[in-house]
Here is the input.
Amino acid sequence: MPPLHSAIRAAQAAGQLMALHRHRTKRVNDSTRHDIKLELDVRCQRVITRVLAAAHPEIPVLGEEASHDAARSAALRWVVDPIDGTVNFAHGIPHAAVSIALQARESPQTAGYADGYATLLGVIFDPFCDELFTARRGHPAFLNGRRIRVSDRPLAEAVLSLGFSGRPGSIPAMVRDVRRLSRRVRKLRIMGSAALALAYVAAGRFDAYVERGIRLWDIAAGGLIIESAGGTFERKEIGTDGRIALTASNGRAGRALRRWL
Here is the structure.
């Protein structure tokens, strides 16, 4: 089975589990001031891993809930976020998605990430809207089989999505961003799912998305989908724990954003 088809099957299987539990009481495995980890996060990743392993047993998984040791150095690896937007999902807000990417270890000149990997394909599935975003490197991006493109709106007309983590300093930084940008864009949105924010930029719904302190599994699929839709995906590692600062945009709005970020 082609890897893209496997990723789609895995994402849809996890999405079905999310939809089944949408109105059920959620069991919390861990809770911090700004985040929640559900028992269902673990179950969804197990479903994804089982589907992927059945088709491609040689490719290890790097996931938010669990990872194979080989995924740090393998020639190919899956990068999985089983429920991106867990806090939304835990509170009954139907804005969350499954994110799956396939990455390859490449040369420093072509690798898209600091650890030497580049994304070959990306799948984001929103089970609540039944929306499937897909892309393969070097090919267009699609939403439910229909080609999508980023918008061409300037910053003054942009809908800008912001995200922030619980990392120390991220909330004051976001407050500064809100102050700088609120009068320079049409609207600001904080939705709670990095994967869907990226997918929405790719589809032309949002015009840019900015976040500091995001994790690889949140953005590996969505970054490729944006680039495949004609947008830009700028990122760099911050600190020593693998967190990433990113600005994703339609290109036009992103160029103007550099002045303020």
The longest helix spans residues 3-20. The longest strand covers residues 117-126.
